[in-house]
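Hey team,

Filing this mostly as a record. A colleague (T.K.) asked me to run one chain through the structure pipeline before their review meeting, and I want the input and output archived in the tracker in case anyone asks later how it was produced. No errors, nothing strange. Just documentation.

Input sequence:
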Amino acid sequence: MATAAKCACEATVTGLYACAGACNVGQMANKIAVELTKQGKGRMMCTAGIGARIPGIMKSTEGTDEIIAIDGCALTCARKSLELAGFTVNKHVVLTELGMQKNKDLDLQENEVSAVMARVGSALGN
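Output structure:
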C-alpha cells in the first residue's frame, strides 16, 4: 500500500472489501460490509475491481489507510484478491470461523445478520 498524503483533518479511510460469493456466507459478507459502511466503520470498496485490476479502483485502494477483508469461507477470495494485487490486508474476518454455517440458501434472515454483525464487530475490535 502506497503512502498517501493526508489532509490536515487527519481523516482516515478504511476500505472494506467483501466476498460476494454464490452462497449464504458470501452474501452475508457483502451485507456486513454494507452495514459497516452505514455505521461509518469504513467505506465499502469493489473487491471484483481489484481482481480485474481496474486502474481507478486500484488507485482508490492505494489511498486507503487500512484494508479490511471480509470473507465468507475458508477459500478467502477477498483477501487473496487483495494480496495478489499487491495490497496488505490489515484485518481479516472469515464468517465460517465465527460460527456461520455455509449453505446455498441466499435468503438472509435479519436476526442472523444482527448476530453475525455482533461477532464481526468483536472480531474487528469495534
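Quick notes for T.K.: Residues 14-118 form one domain. The chain has one domain: 14-118.
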